[in-house]
Amino acid sequence: MDLLGLANYAVFMGILIGIYALLALGLNIQWGFTGLFNAGIAGFFAVGAYASAILTSLPASGRLGGYELPLVVGWLAAMAAAAAIAWPIGKVCLRFRSDYLAIATIGIAEIIRLVIRTEGWLTGGVRGVTGVPRPFGDLDYMPSQVAYLAIVATLVLVAYLLVERQVRSPWGRMMRAIRDNELAAAAMGKQVEARRLQAFVFGSALMGLAGALFVHFNRSITPEAIDPMIATFLIWIMLILGGSGNNRGAILGAAVIWIIWSVSELLTDRLPTEIAVQAKYARVFIIGLTLQLVLRFRPEGILPERQPGSPPHR
Amino acid sequence: MKKRTVAAVVGAMLGAVVLATPAHAQDVKIGLMAAISGPIAALAPPMAAASKLAVAHVNEQGGILKGGKLEAVLGDSACNPQNATDAATKAVNIDRVLAIVGPACSGAVLATANSVAIPAGVLMITPSGTSPEITKLNDKDLVFRTLPSDDYQGRALARTLKARGIDKVAVAYLNNDYGKGLAESFKAEFEANGGTIAGYSGHEDGKASYRSELATLARGGADTLIIFDYGDGTGLSLLRQALENGFFKTFVGADGMKSEGLVKSIGAQNLGGFFVSAPVGEASASLDNFNKAYKAAGENIDAVFATTSYDAAFLVALAIEKAGGDKARLAESLRAVAMAPGEPIMAGEWAKAKQLIAEGKDIDYKGAGGDHEFDAAGDVPGSYAFFKVSGTGYESIADMK
């Protein structure tokens, strides 16, 4: 092993952490600030991924696509598509309170996955979409990864600044009011349903952008990527661990959980080879254990929510 | 403050990894990307065991290069691109593997090839990714597989029918990825060879009657109906109803239709015009070698993808030996050791292969799962034959090219 290899691995982790950070930021808008339990993150991730893939990929027979539009168009379309899917869903489902909303969104993510699997004319079905361009993809291994990391990091930073600004504005205070006491907020004349729908759509658009970044990195997408374990529950764990209601917490949570998830495999590889196959499940266990410990000893997460105007927590 | 704790923990973990990786100059590492967790978790352990058996054969029979040990680094690709790229990045950058066997699922293969193996210049052989999309990868000759693409059977069947003088057919396929994939590749090849598709339609599973679909297909005027379906399911109803109504004279199915239940149910005397294409169970000496060793290792020889997993790992080892451990020459060496001409090498014959390579002789690995004559895209042709009904079973009447 040498430093170059380690650096390559670190850059790769950075890219995935950035993608997951966007997902966690999106979820933070929905759950952290508004109290909407979205258990269908994978669905919005997939919509964004496929939207951008179809618009920017090379032509292929048997499915829609091959428009070869510029990447920026693909990314904007990914956000727009995820938002457009989220709007009717929110319109119907946001009447439900927390648990029911969770059940409804799990179902919706599953519907999206099945549509993607079976509507071959649109998405290529089980074979997925390939030939998706990757910015700076023609460079060598290391420079190409670093360039992609720069793109992802920039987008995460922009998303963070925008969300942060939004949350500090009166809008953010209103959202918190709705989250903490819906009746009181409604009594103050706030349009609770419309505001919750806004948060749901904004959050979903960010998830769609994360999907687009993922698909361009891998230059391909198949329905296998829409696995609830890796594209929904892992993000929940990231947000809860990092601190829901805190944007920096969301990004930190994404980094910590992905590093544990990825690096723990290197550690379990040092176990005797006889149990190598079983050891692979150890990291799932480690993630679960981490979540339990956080919930037991620090339920507010590593970086807890800060109320504007109140002294920060230690 | 908490942040610093986290950073410290992460730093310690990375540090542990650095310390835990000893370096032996002679040893060679390859990555096994098995889908240990995830949707095909049940298939992964036998596949990993088969690849490890190949590694064991190498190490028992003189090791790799100058007495070095071949080491397999097991990664969990979990059948999704997120985990597969992560596992492959670790294998390539942390463990410094020379080549990768896997990942198992096609989506994971595509993502890993695009974001790790091709940019990093690492050879990759998948033992179980069958998607035709893998063929289309712009892979700098780095991505191979040891089993045929889904595309292959449909195309081979189209060529066989054309060669037998059938020019006009109707195609009925079950509307899932098996049926549809076969139908698409069949249609493309048949039309490219000047044939006419006089009817082409998908049908849903489990309906009581397919007469209206059959009538529509028959209207095109073809005598031959191609059925891409399962002979124990919808395919049986479809075939029966087509026979009862006399819609077509000849019927051709793919491997899914090769069912003995179908013959029993309809009766061989009524199936004079029924043919199927199916993979030939190559009863080769190489397969016997593999089965014996695999059984001795305590595994079930009927495990899916076991032979292709063994062959993938063994081929990687042969390529490394041939290339003298030079990463840049692996793909070229792989073609040299896997393809004719050359002295045939069976599964498990590492010592012999090593000897021949040392003498500078050309070798040709005949795998447990097939001959592995790679084409330009790194795909292998399957071995399929054309069968007719005979007695209560099937009899091979021609090999398919």
What does this structure look like?
The complex is a heterodimer of chains A (314) and B (401). With 314 residues, chain A is mostly helical. Chain A is 71% helix and 1% strand. In chain A, strands 1-2 form a two-stranded antiparallel ribbon. In chain A, helix 1 (3-33) packs parallel to helix 6 (141-168), helix 10 (228-242) crosses helix 11 and helix 11 (247-268) packs antiparallel against helix 13 (282-297). The longest helix of chain A has 31 residues, at 3-33. The model of chain A has no long low-confidence stretch (mean pLDDT 89). With 401 residues, chain B is of the alpha/beta class. In chain B, the strands form 3 sheets. Chain B has a 7-stranded mixed sheet, sandwiched between helices. A 5-stranded parallel sheet of chain B has the order 2-1-3-4-5, sandwiched between helices. In chain B, strands 11-12 form a two-stranded parallel ribbon. In chain B, strand 3, helix 4 and strand 4 form a beta-alpha-beta unit. The longest helix of chain B has 19 residues, at 2-20. Residues 16-24 of chain B have low confidence and may be disordered. The interface between A and B is large, with 57 and 61 residues.
